[in-house]
Every structure is written in structure tokens, then in C-alpha cells.
Sequence to fold (1240 residues):
Amino acid sequence: MIDPITLSVIEAGLQQVCDEMDLTFSRAAFSPVIAEANDRSDGIYDAADGSLIAQGAGGLPVFVGTMQASTRTLIAMIAKGEAAAPKPGDIYIVNDPYLGGTHLMDVRFAKPFYRGGKIFCWLSNTGHWPDTGGAVPGGFSASATSVEQEGLRLPPVRLFKEGTLDAEIYAIICSNIRVASQRIGDVKAQAAALMVGEERLSALMDRYGDDTVAGAIAELRRRAARQMESFIAEIPEGRHEATAWVDSDGVVNEPLAIRLAVTRQGEGLRFDFTGSSAPCTGPMNSVRATTLSSVYLAMRHIFPEVPISAGAFEPLEVTGIEGTFLDAHYPRPVSGCAAEVSQRIAEAVFAALAPALPKRVTAAPAGTSGNFALGGHDPETGRDFVMYQLSGGGYGGAASGDGISNGCSTIGISKAPPVEIMEQQFPVLYHHYRLREGSGGAGEHRGGFGLDYMVELRRGEARASFVMDHGRFGPQGALGGSDGAVNEVTVWQNGTPITPEHLSKAQDIPLKPGDRVEVRTPGGGGYGNPARRDPEAVAHDLAMGYYSEAELRALFPGQ
Amino acid sequence: MAEGQLIGVDVGGTFTDLILTDPQSGAVRLAKVPTTPENQAHGVLAALTAAGADLPATALIVHGTTTTTNAVLERKLAKTGLITTQGFRDILELGRRTRPQAYGMTGSFTPVIPRNLRLEVPERMDATGHPLIPLDEAAVEAAGRQLLDEGCVSVVVHFLHAYANPAHERRAAEILARFWPNAHITTGHSLLSESREFERGVTAAVNASVQPLLERYLARLTGELAQGGYRGEVLVMNGNGGMVSALTVSREAAKTVMSGPASGVMAAAYTGRRAGLANLITYDMGGTSTDVALIRGAEPPVSNEIEIEYAMPIHVPMVDVRTVGAGGGSIARVTAAGLLAVGPESAGAQPGPICYGRGGTEPTISDANLLLGRLDPAKFTASATPLAAVEAAFAEKLGKPLDLSALDAAEAVIRLANIRMAGAIRMVSVSLGADPRDFTLFAFGGAGPLHATALARELGIPRVLIPARPGITNALGCTVADLRHDFVHTLNTPLDTLDMARLSETLEEQATEGERLIRAEPVALRALRRLHSVDMQYRGQTHLLRVPLDGPEITREALLARFEEVYYNRFRIRLPGAAAAVVNANTSVIGTRAALDLSTLIDPAQRRATLAEAQTGTRRVRFAGAWHQTPVYWRDHLPADAALTGPAILEQMDTTTVIEPGDRAGTDADGNILITLGGAA
Fold:
């Protein structure tokens, strides 16, 4: 039995190793997606089954559970001879979504960590590459019907063999992706992070001894499970149900249902998704690892105190996803899983548990990454370009107060690019970039407000694509609060406004100079009965112009 | 300038510290009085009285104030309006699409200027600075008058792409100046001529909304000083570690936010330079916060990208000080997983640790130091809370759930706190591309010297420096700080097409302007230096690396080689063939004042001839699970060439230094304690 102080010390040490890996990866990466948006994660995983030992605190939330799934799958494939046996210095690369991943753009590296000639654990990381080939630059094709259209799919292969980059495999990758010349910087950064992890973990083990560290890891896992169980005990027994809706899959214009029943059974919590929609034709499928990870990240939003550890996930059981779009298999397209479906799964968890944990759970947040891509040709520079505008929305009201406005997606932590930078880099002009008045769901504590921007193409030609959600149904209110406003996309061609058929999803809408796109993102759901809102808060909202007088009268009856 | 007294006075959160030096007699006088938050001038005057300052004989007063810091953090700001580009008034409220923490979907954010005071006018520049929509001058006037009617006393003009072409902002300011009743008109481009509308806008908004407060405060202070017979200049510390005349500092008031921590780092750099130690990690641990900075080559680090709290970026050059912990008031507790945790919750200044006897009930780092004998129990018996109460709290709240004695629990708290702080310091140094083992730990603040040796051991740092007066380091910073002006000019050009002659001209122009500004200040200078650098990246990257230059002239090939070297040292990666770009050209012009002799910080007359004479007693102190009878020395009495081996405790008015068993400590001519860690790290 290890004393609790040594445990705390080793826990801090393992966390430090992961945080240094995160930092190294971000600082050295080329791609702004990693360097600026921190769309990456690094961690330490069990040698036998890939269970999560520790993961960097600054990792993208959606990766909280996928990296153990990926490492676990790799270990199983090695055992069955489906992947090459590891040697010291090897680094595997894999981006196959069905092998414990998300979408193809999230490329995972895994490196065995040796101690005394044996694998003690795995160091793994994930980084979102700006492109992995496929039908559209960036990989988010709203109308793909198979994974082949989404990009290059890599099984686990050793990109580094005994410390040396395999130029042949790398050449295959580079021939299949866009802007390949810049990827070497990212590849080296991703590998460097694992090497820093190796160095720091070795130092930790030298200091405390291999047996002590191994014992501490096992004990920390047990304790994380116990901690999660103690939080689960706050949840009343019984079934807590909710349904969340995805607008459509981008190809077939029908809503997809996520039906969830959360049941507390003793010390554990079961998340049953039986009755959710069948796998879909378009890219709004989720893979098993992403579905599980979405449940985990939602629980961590509710209980931020719980450490990121396999133990914390142990009391959480996910059932009923087989045969639904939450457990898609090859060759279903999946590019929407990490950015959109994951957030809707989290919304289902929030909506189911808000009445059970009213002090902790918020009404639904905007819950879409608001992905607007504009690809075209700029005659002034003579170059093709792809511009991404990801946007935030309102957060849900909570027991503690109103939701914040223009918050980041539930599964991300990144900053949006400034308007000035967008206009420097792309042939566009923003007409406005403002708070979307009236969008926050009414409640005793109202939802935060979405964003409203309008952008014009100045020259050349371009095509606009949208992968968003919540266009059909607004983010759900909780405990009597109203839903937040729905996402709205309007494309102005020759001065004529067009609403995309799928509301929040569309691909390759042609734009000419002077054409415009307006996006109005969702507000957060309201929390509690709007009639109980503090009259001073209502008066303040009016004075700030957050709602019109008519809106206030309609949304906050009796005020 | 007459050889009069020189006074540095720094207002901190709890105390106002003062250091007075008299070049004629060589005397140094110190004062520490409570800060008076409503009007900091009262505390300053009280400190002057306490030190027996002779105002008519005083040549110069340098002042560090938290007036603007507090105003921003507490949002007690002057009523300020914003006039901005049509369609963009919500930029200040929308921010960059973030949330306060990675996990947990709650939190709040209050914009610097409320929405009803943010008005829009028709005008628009594009990204190249070409006007697309002319400025609607009548709308500017109407907006200005509306803001006056609303009671605004300060106004910001912030237009999109004004960094590329400030003509509209300048014109709008001219129009406002015709009827605005005071000089509080801030234009966005004047403080920060860089793209990124949120950061530039917040910086300008903060500037405008603290300007009237700083001006009023300084008018009051200088008035009172004049009444006391002071005829000299008051200089005010800026966050970049330089100082500016009180007459002009309000114009760029945002630069004074975060000036307190900057002074401490300036003092550390100065002290280190004199001690021959150019590379320092400064470690300032007080009651409520722990701040860290990295000094390389005796130059304090300056960054333009500091966020003083969630979504509150102030992008003007400031000494890069990072907060890594909650200080001595950090609360220890046992988590639901049965693990010990220390911080980030803090008992703060009120109620503070249990041992303060102000109603605190949660075990803190300071309480643990007391239980372990590192702090003198005799000092706390006067308070309402006896040692036994502290011990009982440790036994009940930590010992019982962890199955440890109260004392073992206290030791565990210190151990874990040190590991956490060491980890955070490592992250700071790694993020700046430095290995902590190449540094000396410079420990100050009320609690820094208590933890310094343990922390250094954790980080593999071989040596610790405890300055003569750890508790008044910020005030010392005021008296040794330089005059300083920083310039940033955005080029954003690939290196292979960069006009190298233009780069040299830009750097030269920056230096000329800085030298002009510094010569205009009524302060005697010993030397004037310039620091040139460029910020570079490989095309496609977002992070910038600062590449120092020896002078304004450099060839393309030499610059590339220098960048590649800096890049390799930082990331351990070489990227031959990747295209490098120069993003910013930077120059800092630094005017150094007459050197201050630190050797009298500890009065030489106080020194005793032998170590034995400096010893005040012994007490039991716990190290690594065992009690050691530990000699206690009064630091001011240590002989000039003292050498001792730990365990030892050094006490002085403003702090306690712990020297662990086996560590060796010596003193130098400036009264610094230099501790060399014994044994392997």
C-alpha cells in the first residue's frame, strides 16, 4: 500500500509529464489548428490494455476518451499480429476512425515506453491535421456518403522505426494530402512531444522507482473510480431521460434522434442510447470511441473535479448504441462526429441530468462548432484559398447565473480568429460581427447570446460549405427555461437570400463578388421559470438592448 | 541634479513599502505601512513619515501604484464610452469565443465598457488601410455628445484596421477634442498598432477607463507632496519595468496595470547583475499569490501579450510575470478520492490562514510552515488562535482522512505545495524555451524564502539567492528601474523578399524616437542603451520567436542563421528549406540611472563579528519527518562574510529564510544570502 502523500506526488508528476507534452506539441506545431486552437491532446496509457493513466489538462475535451480507445485497439491489433510488433524508438501513426478515433483529420501517434527492456506504458497523442485528402479541403464534406470521400485512412503503421522517420510511408501520406510541404513540421512536433514525454517520465521513474510508480498508477485508478462513484451518489435513483436532435445528416433531410436514458445502478451510472436513429447516409455518424468520449466529457463538464483517468470512466457504462448512428462502421462517413454529434450527445447527457443535478448542470449550450468553410480562388494573389470561420454561441443558464455569450463549442477550447486577420488573409469583408440580440433562451437565468456575422466575397469566385447544427431545434432549456434560438444560415446570391435546404448544412454553394453569407448562431437554453427572473436583471437586459421590449414581454411573462 | 535623497515607494495589495537612500550619508531607511485602498496617497504619505523622509531634500520619488490594477480587476472604472465601426460594437463583449475554464460550462464575463455606451458610426477601412466607407463626421459628433449626456468622462475611438491606416481614428479624435471637456480621448491605434480588434480594443478601453482615475490619484499625491515641500519630479512605474513622469503617465495609463510585479523583477535583475548572476528565475511568494519570471542575460523578459485575467488582454509591452499559485494562503484539503490537494482555493487576505487569528478555519500553507517550526510560533501566540488550534485543524481536516498525524500532514502539505509550484515554474520555463537548471532561483516576497531551497531542489536548480530585503523588493525596483520605451512595428514579410535596408531604417527610427523621449525626462542618466530584435516564424506558423540583434544592421543570411539557431534551441527541430518570415521589428531604448549601492540595505553597523553573536536562539524545525534543533539567526546581525550549513533559520523584519539540512549559505557584499544546495538534486 502506497502512502497517500506519495500518491499525490506521483499524480502531480504524471500530470506534469502530460502537460509538458501538450506544451511541446502546441509550441512546435505549424498548423494553427494545433498551435493556436490546441486541437490536440497527449497522454500516458497502460501497457496491457491502453487504459488512460494521465492526460494533459490542456487537451481538447473531445479526446478525453478517444485516446485510450485508440491505444487499446492498437495493443489488441499488435497482439493479434494485425499491426507490426513494436521496437524501442518506434512511433505508430493511425487515423482510422473505426479503430478508436474520431474523424480522419485527427491523426494519432503512439510510442511504446520501455523500462528494463519491457513496455511499461504507451505515450500517445492526437493532433488535428489541416488536411488528410478527400473530396474537400479540410475534410469536412457535408455530403460525403463514404469514408473514402473524406480522406486518406491509415491503419496503425510505424511512421518512425527505431527513431527514424520512414520516408516511404511519409511519401505515401504526402502524395494524398493538400499543402503537404508544411506537414513535416507538424509531424516532427507531434513526435517531439512524445520524446519529451519519454524523457520526463523516465526522470520521474528514476526518482521514485518503477514499482512505486506502477503501484501508484493502479491505486490512482481505483481512487478515481471511487471519486466518480461519490459524485454519482448525488444523482437520485431512477431513470433520467432526454432526447436531443441532430438537424439532418447533410444528405437525407431528416432529423436524427439521440435517445438517452440515464439510470443509476448502485455505484454506477448507465447511459442507454437504445432507440436512437439508425446509421445515416451523410457524415453525421459517430464511431463508438467518440460516442463514449462524448459521454465522458459531458460528465467532466458536470464534475470538473474528477481527474482524467480510466478509473473515472469505469463507473460509466454506455449501452444500446449498436445498430445506431452512434456506433457507425466502415464505410459510413464520419466527419461530423467529433465537432457536431459529440456535442449533441453531451446535450442529451445535460438534458437528462439537469433535473437530477440542478445545482451542477446547465441548460443546453449552443452546441455547434459553426463550421463555415469558404474555398475559392483569389485573382489578386493568384492563389487558391480555404477559409474557415468557426463560431461560438450562447451557453445555457445555470443555477449560478446567466450563460455567457459566444462561448466555444462544448468539445473544444479554441479561440476564434479575429475579423482583421480573416480580412488580411482572405478576399472577404465582414459587414457585421455582433451579438445576436434576442437569442438567449428565457429563464430565471437566461441563456447567453449567439453571434451574428455577415461576410461578403470581394473578388474572384468561391464556394461556401456549412457543417453546423441546431438549425431545426434550439439548444434545450432546463427546469422550465425556454430553448435558445436556432442556428440560421442565409446566403445572398445576387442580392437574393437563400436558406440552405438542410438549414445548417450545405456544400459548395457558389459565390460571386458581392455575394454574402450571414450566420446567426444559437443562443443558450434558459434555466428555470422565466417569470421568476429578477426584475432588475430584466431591466438591465432591456437597457443593454439584449432583447427588445416586445421580446421581453413575450419571453418573460409577468415581468 | 542635486545629490538629494532618492525614494522608491511601492503600493501593494496589503502593504505600502518604501526605501529611501541618501547618497551623501550612504544611509538607507525602510518603511512598511498598511496600504490605504480608498486613497493610496495616504499610505504613501504615512510611509514617508515612517521613514523620516525630508521632502525638501529629496531629489526624486519613484512610485509604483496598483490604482489601475485594482480598478480593472474590481471593475471600478471611470464611466467610459466607445465609438466604433458600424457593425462591430460588440467586439469587446464577444471576445474570442472562449470560456473561463476547459471543463465546466459556467462562468461570467463583464465587458470593460457596457453595451449601452458602445456606439457605432459609419466608416470602414479594409485590411490594407484603404478607406471603403468615409468617416461620417456628423455621426462622430452626435455619438460623442450622446456619451457626454450619458455621463461619460472618457472616450475610446476604436476602428477596424486602424493599425493599417489610423486616419479615421485621428480625425474622429480631432472632432471629439473640439467639445470633449477633458483630454481623456484614447484612440485604439495609439497604444498598440497591431491587428486583432478584440485585443487592441480591450487595451484601449482599459486605458480610457483607468486614465481619469490615475490622473486624479496622481494629482492628489503630487499636490500633497508639494505641500510637504517636495520640489522634484514624481516618476511612475510602468508594467514594462521602466518609469515615466507623473505628468504624462496617464496618457498611456494601461501601461501601469501590472507595474507592481514588474518592479520586483527589475530589482531582481539589478541585484543579480551586481552579484554576477545573469540568469534568474524570480520567485515571489506572498500571502495571496505566487509570481514567477525568467531573467536571461540580466534582461527582464518583456511580452506584448499578457492577459491579466480571463478575456482581459492588455497588449502593451509588460514584464512577463506569470502567476503560478495562490501563495501562503493556499488551502489544503482531502479530495473525494482520498488524496491530498493544495490550492488553488485560497484563504486570501481575509480571513487568511488559521494562524492569523482572523477567523480562518481551513489549513493553509502558512499554517503548515508554522506547525513545522519554520515560522516562529512565538510571533503568533499574540493572536487569538494558539498553535494548538492550528494543530487540531490539521489533525481533523487532513490527518484523520489521510491516516497521518497533524505534523506529518503539515509536512505533506509543504511537500505537495512545493511539487505543484515547481511543476508550474517548469511549465513557465519550458514555455519560454529554458531549462530551469541553468538558472539561479531569486526568492522574495513574504513567503518566498521559506520555500526556496526545497523548490530549487525539486527543479534541479543548484543555487538560491535571497536578497537583503525580500519583503520590499518592489520598492527597491522603483529605485533601480530604468527609463524605458518599447517600440513594435509590424512588417509581416517573408525573409527572402524583405527589404533589409528598410528593416535597418525602421530599427534606427525606433531608437531615435526612444532616445528623444528619454532625453526629455528630467532625470540624470548614466547610460543609454538600445535593444533591437525581430519576431520571426516559419511561414504558416502562428507562434513567434524573438530573435535578438546586435544592432540595426544585419544581412539576410545572418538573420536566417540566427533565427534557425534560436528555433533549434527552442524546439530541438531543424527545418531546412522552410520559409522564414519577419513579423515584427522591435526596439527598446533604456536609460540607466546612477547606480544604487545595495551594500547598505542592511546597515553595516548592525553586523556582528561572529555567527554566534548573530544567533538569537534555537528551535525545533521539522525536515523530512524528523525534528532538528535548528539555530535561528537575526539576519541583520550576520557577519559580512558569514558561512553556515543548514539546518538554519534566518529571521528578519520582513521574512524568514529556511536553509535545509546540508545546504550551505554565505553572504556577499550586498547582503544577499547565496545558498548552494547540498547533495544531489
About this structure: The longest helix of chain A spans residues 183-208. Residues 4-225 of chain A form one domain. The mean pLDDT of chain A is 95. Chain A is about 30% helix and 25% strand.
